[in-house]
Design a protein that fits this description.
Shape: elongated
Helix content: over 70%
Number of strands: 0
Oligomer: single chain
Distance between the termini: 23 Å
CATH topology: de novo design (two linked rop proteins)
CATH architecture: Up-down Bundle
Number of helices: 4
Number of domains: 1
CATH superfamily: 23S rRNA-intervening sequence
Strand content: under 5%
Order of helices and strands: HHHH
Length: about 120
């Protein structure tokens, strides 16, 4: 299952979030918002992996919906970090686009839960 697109993209995104967290700590001395984005940004992939190993269809969709919520929360923290000046425009545009892509993928997956 590790060749699954959403698994691959969420893992790559989590690694980017970890690097962002390290940058915010070292370079910007930001300790609160960075922790929030770290938690939500790495939780996306963890919930996706849990969903894939889910015990039932409803368990799968429950975990995927949690992953979607975490991605939406991450979108919020990224925007806040950018608007407050902790993340410059170019890095923000790139990581924000990756976050939105994950949200689109997860929305496409979760919209099929009632079928």
């Amino acid at each position: 299952m590790d060749n699954n697109v959403v698994v691959i993209k969420s893992r790559a995104f989590a690694l980017r979030i970890i690097k962002l967290y390290q940058y915010l700590l070292r370079e910007k001395k930001e300790f609160v918002l960075s922790r929030q984005v770290l938690k939500s940004g790495t939780s996306i992939g963890a919930n996706i992996k849990e969903a894939i190993r889910g015990q039932s269809r409803s368990d799968f969709f429950s975990k995927m919906n949690i992953a979607l919520k975490e991605a939406s929360e991450t979108e919020y923290w990224l925007d806040l970090l950018h608007q407050s000046g902790y993340i410059d425009d170019n890095p923000f545009i790139s990581i924000y686009a990756d976050c939105l892509e994950l949200i689109r993928l997860l929305m496409a997956i979760t919209k099929h839960q009632n079928r």
